[in-house]
Amino acid sequence: MEEPLHLPDAPNPPEEGDCCGNGCEVCVHDMYAAELAEYRRRVMEYEARQQNMSSDTDSEKA
């Protein structure tokens, strides 16, 4: 079963002071970049499903 069709929420960027500046192996900025990439992927999937639904509806009308 597919996920419900809703636009995912964008991740919140790190706030000032979230990064300690010590060069951590996995920084909050790295985690945000990964979350943002996943968000963009999910938005593209959402838009593709919306486009497919629109195409299916148009072909049913014909």
Summarize the structure.
The chain is mainly alpha-helical and 62 residues long. The protein has 1 helix and no strands.
Q: Ends: how far apart?
A: 28 Å
Helical stretch count?
1
| Series of H and E elements | H
Main sheet specs: none
Q: Estimate the helix proportion, in percent.
A: 40-55%
Provide the gyration radius in Å. 18 Å
In terms of DSSP E residues, the strand content is under 5%
Mean pLDDT: 87
Can you tell me the residue ranges where pLDDT is under 50 for at least 5 consecutive residues? Answer: none
| Coarse shape | rod-shaped
Number of strands: 0
Based on secondary structure, the structural category is mainly alpha
Organism: Chitinivorax tropicus
InterPro entries: Oxidoreductase-like_N
Protein name: Oxidoreductase-like domain-containing protein
Keywords: Coiled coil
